[in-house]
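Hi F.,

I've been meaning to write this up properly since the lab meeting, where we talked about keeping a consistent format for the predictions we share between groups. The idea is simple: the sequence comes first, exactly as it goes in, then the structure tokens exactly as they come out, then a line or two of notes. No screenshots and no reformatting. I'm using this chain as the first example so we have something concrete to point to.
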Amino acid sequence: MFELIKPLITTHKLGLTIGNRKLLDDVSMTVREHEIVTIIGPNGAGKSTLVKVMLGLVPQTSGTIQRRENLRVGYVPQRFPVASNVPLSVRRLLTLTIKSADNEIMQALSETGIEHLVNARVAELSGGELQRALLARALLRQPELLVLDEPVQAVDFNGELKLYELISTIRKRRGCGILMVSHDLHMVMAESDRVICLNGHVCCEGRPAAVQKDPEFLKLFGPSAAKMIAAYTHHHDHDHESHGH
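Output, unedited:
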């Protein structure tokens, strides 16, 4: 099915070497319209680095990147430090790098569920509220490709569930492609169309059910990860009626 959908961004044999250290090697992947592609891997695997290279924030040392002409990208970085003594409001945060009308700002905040925080100080937001504000900021660009680097960091478990549900809803509502970096294996397998397992190079990729059985996945994360994912997926592959059935 995905082969019939036009690619948004494609890498071919992408590599990055800094000094004597090879951070990325021979990475080929594609993100298409309407799909959620999630990159997983251990710490130091190059996940965030790959995203930055794909976005042109860091130049590759080998390989090629093909982007759709005039591709609109919304990006939520892994870290967005805000000093506690800086009086930055949510409204101002959303307009730091892009000019937007007030109704557009409110629409983006409404879509992420925090329109009531438009005048709140960013430094006083909870982890989940900050991630929603950054997501609203990315949506103001009307992205064809939404790039989310660890979007649920500093968020509790219930907040994670709600954020992943929101991300899925945004994909359905807007039809954009989503490239996500995550360490939450059970959430990834529940929400992604395709998973790419990275450890400097692509160890394995495919639909979640196939990846969790791949020997390379099991080598990186261990058999217990596959069991955890299977249990989670079984527990959430149906709807409950009001009385629990």
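Notes:
The beta strands are 7-18, 21-32, 36-40, 62-67, 73-76, 145-149, 177-181, 194-198, 202-206.
DSSP finds nine helices and nine strands in the chain.

If this format works for you, I'll send the rest the same way.

G.
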